[in-house]
Design brief:
Order of helices and strands: EHEEEHHEHEEEEEEHH
Low-confidence stretches: 253-257
Structural class: alpha+beta
Shape: globular
CATH superfamily: B-lactam Antibiotic, Isopenicillin N Synthase, Chain
Strand content: 25-35%
Oligomer: single chain
Radius of gyration: 18 Å
CATH topology: Jelly Rolls
Helix content: 10-25%
CATH class: Mainly Beta
Number of helices: 6
Length: 257
């Protein structure tokens, strides 16, 4: 039967929407409660919706009963502090699974390439239902930072680099694309991440905000790209050697974040 997917994501695996241009108080993402959870860098997460309405960010399949990343339960204490963020997550009218704010500390392009990962959004997702994708709404103004998306973890021939100023809005099939963020700066980056079920509601939302499947790549000096690629190869080889010495295969499973 196959999953219900958005045609807008078919070409590249992502769409960029119009920038969000309404005022929002930074207290909404500074005052909510964060938990330590490492994902593609030095990160913390503040959940707004979780499996059981608790302040934790584990995959829904790790709970009892296990289930897919849909039907998230909103956390009252967090929702009270971040009403605009919740409103933005609910606006498409699509089913919401996990919804949280990520805090990412500054890193490098080489760090990003090493931290590229795919998400396990659709574990236990029944065939014939909507494919789960993720929305990324940049909250802080990170003009020198960019989202890196690849079809293949180690192949730079297909690499999308999307700018991340305040208000940037991107929807990504993160189970298809390898992804991570290069955050150049001195302060943490904050972004609202929402798991949405694909379907007519999400399609209408993408159309409403003029979603496009290609935008110009952020320009990065070739020497930075080359050095990052070399460093990624070195780190991956070192990691593989570490596990080989222990008689294990390198762990390359999808991220649960």
């Amino acid at each position: 039967m196959g999953y219900i997917k958005s045609a807008a994501l078919e070409e590249t695996g992502y769409v960029v929407l119009d920038r969000y241009n309404k005022p929002i108080d930074p207290k909404e993402w500074h005052d909510i409660e964060y938990v330590d959870w490492k994902s593609s860098g030095e990160t913390r997460f503040a959940p707004l919706a979780s499996a059981k309405g608790e302040i934790e960010v584990n995959g829904f399949w790790n709970h009892k009963p296990p289930r897919t990343d849909k039907d998230g339960v909103w956390i009252p204490s967090q929702v009270e502090k971040a009403p605009t963020l919740v409103e933005r997550a609910l606006e498409p009218g699509a089913n919401v699974g996990r919804c949280r704010v990520i805090e990412l500390m500054p890193n490098t392009y080489a760090d990003t390439l090493y931290n590229l990962h795919q998400d396990d959004n659709n574990r236990l997702n029944p065939d014939g239902t909507g494919w789960v994708v993720r929305g990324f709404f940049n909250l802080s103004d990170d003009k020198d930072s960019y989202f890196v998306l690849r079809e293949n973890r180690t192949d730079p021939s297909v690499e999308y680099r999307i700018a991340l100023p305040a208000g940037a809005q991107v929807i990504v099939d993160t189970q298809r694309l390898w992804h991570a963020v290069t955050h150049n700066g001195t302060e943490p980056r904050y972004c609202l991440i929402t798991s949405w079920e694909s379907g007519p509601e999400l399609d209408a939302y993408i159309e409403k905000y003029n979603g496009v499947s290609r935008v110009p790549n952020v320009e990065v000096p070739q020497e930075v790209l080359d050095a990052g690629q070399a460093e990624q190869a070195r780190r991956i080889a070192a990691r593989a050697a570490y596990y080989a010495a222990k008689g294990q295969a390198e762990k390359t499973a999808m991220s649960e974040a």
